[in-house]
Amino acid sequence: MTVAASPVRRGHPFSVDRALAVLSLKRKLAYKTTWIFSIAGGAWPLLAGLVVWQSIIGDGQVGGYDWAAMRAYLIIGFLTATIAWGGSDWDMAVRILDGLVAIDLTKPVDFQRARASEYVGSMASVVPTAVLGTVAAWFWFDPQPPVSATAAVLTAVSILFIFPLAFEISYLSVLLCFWTRRYHGIQWAKDGFLTFFSGMMVPLALMPGWLQAVSWSLPFAHFTATPSSIYLGRVGTAGALGLIALELAWVVAMWVIARLIWRRAVKKVTIHGG
Entry's PANTHER family (predicted)? Predict the structure, then answer.
C-alpha cells in the first residue's frame, strides 16, 4: 500500500517537520485493520488494573489512595502509557541497523528533527485509542475528579510534554544501536525502566523512600506520577508548576544530550556491516 506524501510549503520553517509527521501518521493509518484492533483492545490493560486494585484497596486506602483516587490514577496511567508507546522507535532503529542513516546524512534535513517529526506523527495515531478508552472508563468507573480547574489544566500540560519526552527517551535508546548493532535488548530495558520508574506498574508512593527518590530523579516519573500527582492534588499549584518545569528541563536536556551523542555516533556509521 502506498501513501501519498504531504505537500511541503516552501519558506515555512516547520514545513518539512509537518510533512514528515503527516506522512508518518498516514503510514500508521494505512493499516486500518491493525489500527482498529489496537483501538478495540487498548483498554484491556486498564480493565485488568482496575480489577486488581479494587481487590487490593477495597473500602480502605493504600499509599494514600482510596478507591476513587486509584481509579483516576489508573485511567491517567492508561492515557499516558498509550501515548508513551504510540511511537515507532523501531523505524528509527532500522535506519541505523540497515545503514540507511548514511543516506540520511546526505540530505539537507536535520536527522534528529526529522525523526522527532516522524515519531510524533506516529504517536498521533494512538490518540483515538487514548481518548476513547479514557472517556469510556471515565463514564463507566466514575473516578475522582480533579481537585481544581487549575489542576486539570496543568495535568493536560504535563501530558502534552509526554510527546517530546517519549521521543527523546526512545531516540537516545536507538542511538545506542551505533555501538550494539542490536535493538531488542535495548528496547526491553527501556520499556522496563519506563514502566517501573514512571509509576505505571505501581504508584511511586508505594515504593520505599529511597526508591521514590531515585524514581523522581529520572525523566520516567513524568509519564504517570507527575500528571496523576497534579490531578489528585498531591502537590499544590506551586509544586505542580515545579514538576512541569522539571519535565520541560528534561525535554531540553535530553535534546541537547542526543545532539552530543549523535556527533560521536555518526563517526561509527557503516553500511551493511562494511
Answer: SLR1174 PROTEIN, SLR1174 PROTEIN-RELATED
Q: How does the average pLDDT of the chain come out, rounded?
A: 84
pLDDT recorded at residue 3: 44
Cα–Cα distance, 88 to 82 (Å, whole number):
13
Q: In whole angstroms, what is the distance from residue 137 CA to residue 157 CA? A: 21
- Structural domain count, the chain: 1
| Position 171 confidence tier, pLDDT thresholds 50, 70, 90 | very high
Q: Which of 22, 176, 4 is nearest to 89 (CA)?
A: 176
242: helix, coil or strand? helix
Q: Give domain status of residue 124, yes or no.
A: yes
Q: Are 226 and 140 in contact (CB under 8 A)?
A: no
- Cα–Cα distance for residue pair 2/256, rounded to 1 Å: 35
Q: Can you tell me the distance from the alpha carbon of 205 to that of 225, in angstroms, rounded to the nearest whole number?
A: 9
Label residue 181 by pLDDT band (50, 70, 90): confident
Please give the residue range of the domain that contains residue 21.
Answer: 15-268
% of the chain exceeding 70 in pLDDT: 85
In a domain, 10, yes or no: no
146, 197 contact by CB (below 8 A)? no
Give the Cα separation of 91 and 167 in Å (integer).
12
Q: How far apart are CA 138 and CA 13, in angstroms?
A: 39
Residue 7 in any domain: the answer is no
How would you class 78 by CB atoms within 10 Å of its CB: exposed for 0-12, middle for 13-18, buried for 19 or more? buried
Residue 1 is assigned to a structural domain of this protein: no
